[in-house]
Design goal:
The protein has 140 residues and is an alpha+beta fold. The protein is built from 4 helices and 8 strands; from the N terminus they run H-E-H-E-E-E-E-H-E-H-E-E. It has one domain: Alpha-Beta Plaits, CATH 3.30.70. It starts with a helix and ends with a strand. One of its GO terms (molecular function) is RNA binding.
Length: 140
């Protein structure tokens, strides 16, 4: 990540991988952790799960509404320890291959994950308007 490029508007990417997540974190725990400092700043969150072990696989995808939000998110979280489970892992962030809420919806809309328990499915949030930041149903 080049935070200076992002801060000066020369990098407009909004979708990132949050990496080094302790395996016991659930998607709800991750969301709560993000919301402590960045509630309402993202419109997509997904923490992939290993269904055999019922644990996450160590990374999640997030799409920020504004690319510059990643600067404050990085300063708050990157390189820092996780708040639960006494893990030695440090939060890291990298660019995701797919970029933007629309691309993420397309990728997961017909995925087998959408037939799993709702707690394992990607989360969508309203991107604007009076419901900004509130949960939004995933289009089928």
């Amino acid at each position: 990540l080049d935070l200076e490029k992002i801060d000066h508007g020369r990098d407009q990417r909004t979708t990132f991988m949050i990496r080094n997540i302790p395996n016991k974190y659930t998607q709800e725990m991750l969301r709560s952790w993000i919301d402590e400092s960045h509630k309402g700043t993202y419109d997509f969150l997904y923490l992939p799960i290993d269904f055999d072990n019922k644990c996450n696989i160590g990374y999640a995808f997030i799409n920020f509404l504004d690319p510059r939000t990643v600067v404050s998110f990085s300063k708050s979280h990157v390189g820092k320890s996780w708040s639960r489970f006494n893990s030695e892992k440090k939060c890291d962030l990298s660019y995701a291959r797919l970029q933007g809420k629309g691309s993420l919806i397309q990728r997961f809309r017909n995925s087998d994950i959408m037939h799993q328990d709702v707690s394992y499915q990607p989360l969508l949030f309203h991107s604007s308007g009076p419901c900004k930041g509130e949960p939004e149903p995933f289009p089928r």
